[in-house]
Amino acid sequence: MNRIILFDGICNFCNSSVQFIIKRDSNENYQFASLQGEVGKDLLKKHGLKGDLSSVILIEGDRAYIKSNAALRICRNLSGLYPFLSIFLIIPSPIRDIFYDVIAKNRYKWFGKKESCMIPPAEVRGRFLD
């Protein structure tokens, strides 16, 4: 199954999250694209999503997941104990997303941002679609 994670390419927290995922994605389940790039913009349009940079987006096959739904679904395919976090999917997303939105709203203030999207290291560059 084709799995693509769309992320805010200038957000330090988002870039750290992508690096976190790469280190724990030993089966290379995920590819990545920044929301600011052409691939990201095309995927947003294809799935009828607005260009909201405050959410990580997971594209799995023909489905798109946002906010905590995306984050918890991503955990399912990571190594270690992270797949167990998907148990929180039983909590209704409006409740989960309250916490997600607080972090998303403050991510630049708390973690800062870059002037431009990150350039992935050579060893994982092939997993980035932009």
Automatic annotation (TrEMBL):
InterPro entries: DCC1-like, DCC_oxidoreductase. It holds the Pfam family DCC1-like. It comes from the Bacteria. The lineage of its organism: Bacteria, Bacillati, Bacillota, Bacilli, Bacillales. One of its GO terms (molecular function) is protein-disulfide reductase activity. This is Thiol-disulfide oxidoreductase DCC family protein. It comes from Fredinandcohnia quinoae.
